[in-house]
Each structure stands twice: as structure tokens, then as C-alpha cells.
């Protein structure tokens, strides 16, 4: 890939409608859960766009607010035409990427990586030299990134137990250290607390400030 004169990767990020996204955060953040889900997606998108190995970011979503926010950040929005699930959305986005950027690899990225560092994403993309590679999440059972080289089908297997599913499909797990921000997806309040310790992006930090203000009574609403 070193001979390419453009960044060699197209990143595809699927974003569920935030009215129903991140349901496991509802107990801890009943009012701010939709805002957090949107913030995660925007911060993830912005971090991906900042990687020098990323040529473009395609966000697959039917959420109009997310669409406006990620467009402002510099991403392109692809309507979730299948509208039937995460893997189908990724297949749709990957097909668009392959048609428009056939010389580039396609990397599927989780939308809930609010602490993502561009350098850590760049490290993982640079290490993705197999036909298909993936990054295992911090709990060790899920997947936060799946990368397929130019002309190789993405074949996403996201969902419960996706790390084993991706490995069984022939994808190679990336054995990298110091990429915790890429491995820290957020499903629970404990996950979010850890992401905050790592250092979240500006949109998530803004929402967390609202949450803190609500908790201390300075905002006049309850979180």
C-alpha cells in the first residue's frame, strides 16, 4: 500500500437511530442516553477522519441529527437502505465504498468509540496487511474494527461473540498493544467511565458535563 498516493482506507461506520441506541445506558443516563449515543458517533467519526490512512468516512445511518452532525465533521452519509441490521448496514456501506474507491481497503468501525485516538486507529490500519483483519474489544469477545483489503469482501459478523465469528471466517486478529481507545467500545455505564478515564472526544465530554451538572443540581434537570 506504500505506493498509493492517497490514503488507502475507507472507513464505514454504522449508526443506529439514537432514539433506540445504547439501551444499556438507559438506567444510568435516562435523559442523556440519546445525546450520548450521538456524541459517541460524532467523536468516533471525527477521530477516524483525522487518521492519515483514512481517505473517507462513510456513515450508514437513518438518523437525521446524526447525519447532519457527521456531515459537518466531514463524513459522507449513506442512507441505511436495508434497514434490517448492523451487518446488512455494513455490507451496504462496504459495497458503496468498493464501487467508488476500488483501489482502497474498507474498514468497518464501531460507532461507540468516544475515546478513539487517531494514532491508535492508524496503528491498527497499518497493521491490517492480511486480506481481512480485526480488532477485539476490551472484554475479549466482541469486535470494534474489521478491515478488508482492496477487492476483498468485508463479510462482517458483528454481534454477540463476533470475535470468534470473525476469526472462524478467516479474519486475522491484530495482536497490538496500546490501542485501548480503539478497543474501548461503550455499552454500559462502567464502559463509559473507563472511556472517560482514557479521555473522550469533545462531543462526549460536553454531554458528560451536562450529566455532571444535572447530578449536582446545577442544571435544573435530572440525568
TrEMBL record:
Biological pathway: Cofactor biosynthesis; coenzyme F420 biosynthesis
Enzyme class: transferase
Gene Ontology terms describing biological process: F420-0 metabolic process
Matches recorded under InterPro entries: CofC, Nucleotide-diphossugar_trans
Enzyme Commission number(s): 2.7.7.105
UniProt-annotated binding residues for phosphoenolpyruvate: 143, 159, 162
Catalytic activity from the UniProt record: phosphoenolpyruvate + GTP + H(+) = enolpyruvoyl-2-diphospho-5'-guanosine + diphosphate
Keywords associated with the record: GTP-binding, Nucleotide-binding, Nucleotidyltransferase, Transferase
Keyword field contains Transferase: yes
Recorded GO MF terms: GTP binding; phospholactate guanylyltransferase activity
Entry keyword Transmembrane helix: no
Protein family according to the UniProt entry: Belongs to the CofC family.
Task performed by this protein: Guanylyltransferase that catalyzes the activation of phosphoenolpyruvate (PEP) as enolpyruvoyl-2-diphospho-5'-guanosine, via the condensation of PEP with GTP. It is involved in the biosynthesis of coenzyme F420, a hydride carrier cofactor.
Protein name as annotated: Phosphoenolpyruvate guanylyltransferase
Organism: Kribbella caucasensis
Amino acid at each position: 500500500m506504500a505506493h498509493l498516493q492517497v490514503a488507502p482506507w475507507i472507513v464505514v461506520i454504522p449508526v443506529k437511530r439514537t432514539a433506540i441506541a445504547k439501551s444499556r445506558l438507559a438506567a444510568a443516563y435516562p435523559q442523556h442516553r440519546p445525546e450520548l449515543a450521538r456524541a459517541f458517533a460524532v467523536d468516533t467519526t471525527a477521530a477516524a477522519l483525522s487518521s492519515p490512512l483514512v481517505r473517507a468516512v462513510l456513515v450508514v445511518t437513518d438518523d437525521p441529527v446524526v447525519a447532519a452532525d457527521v456531515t459537518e465533521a466531514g463524513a459522507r452519509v449513506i442512507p441505511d437502505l436495508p434497514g434490517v441490521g448492523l451487518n446488512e448496514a455494513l455490507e451496504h456501506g462496504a459495497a458503496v465504498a468498493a464501487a467508488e474507491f476500488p483501489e482502497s481497503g474498507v474498514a468497518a468501525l464501531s460507532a461507540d468509540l468516544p475515546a478513539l485516538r487517531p494514532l491508535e486507529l492508524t496503528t491498527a490500519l497499518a497493521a491490517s496487511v492480511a486480506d481481512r483483519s480485526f480488532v477485539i474489544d476490551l472484554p475479549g469477545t466482541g469486535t470494534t474494527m474489521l478491515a478488508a483489503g482492496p477487492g476483498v469482501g468485508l463479510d462482517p459478523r458483528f454481534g454477540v461473540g463476533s470475535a470468534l465469528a470473525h476469526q472462524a471466517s478467516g479474519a486475522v486478529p491484530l495482536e497490538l498493544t496500546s490501542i485501548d481507545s480503539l478497543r474501548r467500545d461503550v455499552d454500559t455505564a462502567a464502559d463509559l467511565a473507563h472511556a472517560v478515564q482514557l479521555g473522550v472526544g469533545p462531543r462526549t465530554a460536553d454531554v458528560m458535563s451536562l450529566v455532571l451538572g444535572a447530578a449536582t443540581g446545577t442544571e435544573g434537570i435530572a440525568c
